[in-house]
Write a structure and sequence with these properties.
mainly alpha; 475 residues; globular
Length: 475
């Protein structure tokens, strides 16, 4: 069985440990919150006592000095602080009011410009001892003359360090051979082959039988920048969801990047006439492109000027992104053929699975007439890319490439775990509109590696329970 390739016992033990650690962390945070609330209550009591003492002193002074206060408007002044509030704006802040500081523990906010950075559980970029140890294991495994791909998959399941992610993705996708000596010649051959396609086909993009394909690609790519809706009014005539992961990242606003994407998508479309170009495929290029840019730069990629890279490097990134995206799509091409039958089947399977693992959520959606196809079509079509920050998608794809049939099969269980993750919020919504707004705008903007690890652990437990016995989730 496919699951045995990854040593089920080891992965299940890891999955259970991740969930257990996450539960412990939540309990610790709850205890800290309780302690903080108790501390705040004590501060409030102390402040109240201090205010009472102050009032007594002021009232004592007033008993000896009964003349009206010029700022009281004829009212009895209970305390000096109240009298001070009634003063002019210039003097209103002469005395700093007593304020309690927010002391509740919270996870550091991940800034928008760090959307694609590798985040550890604390939200920082510092490498822990465990992460350094994992990086060493990857380097040792990759240093051999023939990389053990099964071991590489096992090691990659829990995430791949940024430093070795480009070479690991190329190996796991099947783009590069395990034999080190053959890799350079393979890269040269495949890159030349891709640019041979460019020379042969790209000029035909304006031919009558390719015009529609190229026009749709040309429309979709600029949607990666928010200015496109203003600069190109025609774009607004076509109702397609703007990707949530890309518009806020300056990298994808660059003309040179958009041109690369246009070439990749056009060549793929004409080489796969059974499906051609389908909206949503453009999203699937972005993780590969970003990861392969990291191969050549040290700084963060969000604001990096790609045009500053040498032309040869840009060509390498473009060709590598094309071939790895092609490998991915080879496994899920029925998602994009006529009527998209692959997606239809997966959405139906998701509905059946959720009905077994969380009947309350399933019946709640049914009660308010929410069809799974209305929200989960996008989850399947774009592999959750529009539901998650790009940094989370990249981490998710580490596991997808390590897991047998990760994109085509394991993704179903991830979607089920993802839906149930929001059961509390779903059950609180009491109408169709509220449910649809929630399901199409789930609050994942500040998710990082910890949340993705928990999601994957839950998904693996579902797969372990249902994958080899699909009748278990069919009514």
């Amino acid at each position: 069985m496919a699951a045995q390739n990854l040593n089920i016992e080891v992965v299940m033990e890891t999955a259970n440990k991740v969930i257990e650690n996450h539960s412990k962390l939540q309990e610790q945070q709850k205890q800290q919150e309780d302690a903080s609330e108790k501390c705040e209550e004590e501060e409030e009591e102390a402040a109240a006592e201090e205010e009472e003492e102050e009032e007594e002193e002021v009232m004592s002074e007033l008993s000896f000095r009964p003349e009206p206060n010029p700022y009281s408007d004829g009212r009895m002044v209970k305390s000096f602080s109240e009298a001070h509030i009634a003063t002019s704006k210039e003097g209103a802040f002469d005395r700093v009011p007593l304020q309690r500081q927010q002391s509740l523990p919270h996870r550091p906010v991940i800034p928008m410009v760090a959307r694609m950075a590798d985040q550890n559980t604390s939200g920082t970029l510092a490498m822990t001892e465990r992460e350094a140890s994992r990086l060493d294991k990857f380097k040792q495994l990759l240093a051999g003359p023939n990389t053990d791909l099964e071991e590489l998959r096992k090691l990659s399941w829990s995430g791949i360090p940024r430093q070795v992610r480009p070479i690991t993705w190329k190996l796991l996708s099947g783009y590069l051979p395990a034999n080190v000596e053959r890799r350079e010649s393979t890269l040269q051959r495949k890159r030349q082959e891709y640019f041979g396609f460019i020379e042969q086909y790209y000029d035909s993009r304006n031919d009558e039988h390719h015009q529609d394909t190229y026009r749709q690609i040309h429309i979709d790519i600029p949607r990666m920048s928010p200015e496109s809706l203003i600069l190109q009014p025609k774009v607004t005539e076509i109702h397609i969801d703007i990707p949530r992961t890309n518009p806020l990242i300056p990298l994808f606003q660059q003309a040179s990047v958009q041109e690369i994407f246009e070439r990749i998508l056009f060549i793929w479309a004409i080489r796969h006439p059974a499906s051609g170009y389908v909206q949503g495929i453009n999203d699937l290029v972005t993780p590969f492109f970003v990861v392969y840019v990291f191969e050549y730069i040290e700084e963060e990629v969000e604001n990096f000027d790609v045009s500053s890279l040498p032309e040869e490097v840009l060509r390498n990134i473009e060709a590598d992104s094309f071939w790895c995206m092609s490998k991915l799509l080879d496994g899920i091409q029925d998602n994009y053929t006529f009527a998209q039958p692959g997606i239809q089947r997966k959405v139906k399977a998701l509905e059946e699975l959720v009905s077994r693992i969380d009947e309350s959520v399933h019946r709640h959606l049914q009660h308010y007439e929410v069809e799974y196809l209305q929200f989960a079509f996008r989850w399947m079509n774009n592999l959750l890319m529009r539901e998650l920050p790009l940094r989370c998608t990249i981490r998710l794809w580490d596991t997808y490439q390590a897991e047998p049939e990760g994109f085509s099969h394991f993704h179903l269980y991830v979607c089920a775990a993802f839906l149930v993750q929001w059961r509390k919020e779903i059950l609180e919504e009491k109408d169709f509109q509220g449910l649809m707004i929630l399901l199409q705008n789930l609050p994942t903007m500040h998710w990082g590696n910890e949340e993705i690890s928990v999601l994957l652990a839950e998904a693996y437990r579902l797969k372990y329970a249902f994958a080899d016995a699909p009748n278990h989730y069919k009514r």
